[in-house]
Design brief:
By secondary structure, this protein is α+β, with helices and mostly antiparallel strands. The chain has a five-stranded mixed beta sheet with strand order 1-3-2-4-5, sandwiched between helices. The longest helix is centred in the first third of the chain and has 17 residues. The two termini are about 25 Å apart.
Length: about 170
């Protein structure tokens, strides 16, 4: 069994209740079609299980296969510096079908970011390091593709639909 390394910390992007009994970590790639397919299911999990879950997203850009995965992760992190990580995260998946290098500024404006600051932050080494640290965490945790899910620190073998089913059964 693969376990999450390192554990969830305040360096992560966390959505949900601190007292949640279930912690889900997704390693994802904004250009990956499988992550795109999983996105609406993950949203449904968040809506269905609400305060019972805490959701964390870590970047795992498969840059060799997806040339825009790393730039998209940079856009999400830059948005995070203006407290809009989740807004950009959602916007990237919702617009995955039209992902281009020009899309990031458009989405930044759409979600209400200060554009000049977003562009400046997008060039920051700190952001690149955060994404690389997430990727290294995935490698150390045994991620071998995206999306990969960890439930309460243990790798979940299955996709988002299987995860939803397992959560449903475990909370009934």
């Amino acid at each position: 069994m693969s376990t999450l390394k390192p554990e969830v910390s305040n360096l992560d992007h966390i959505k949900g209740d601190d007292s949640a009994s279930i912690t889900i970590v997704e390693f994802g790639d904004y250009q990956c079609p499988f992550c795109g397919d999983a996105y609406p299911i993950v949203k449904e999990i968040e809506e269905t299980f609400g305060h019972q879950i805490k959701f964390i997203f870590r970047h795992f850009p498969l840059a060799n296969a997806h040339e825009l995965a790393f730039p998209a992760a940079i856009a999400a992190e830059a948005a995070g510096l203006q407290d809009k990580f989740w807004d950009m995260h959602d916007a990237l998946y919702e617009n995955q079908y039209r992902l281009t290098a020009d899309l990031f500024d458009e989405l930044a404006e759409t979600i209400g970011l200060e554009l000049e600051q977003f562009q400046k932050d997008s060039a920051s080494e700190e952001i690149k390091t955060k994404i690389e640290d997430d990727f290294d965490s995935g490698v150390r945790s045994g991620v071998n593709g995206t999306p990969s899910f960890y439930v309460n620190g243990t790798k979940f073998d299955g996709g988002a639909t299987d995860l939803y089913q397992m959560l449903k059964e475990s909370t009934e």
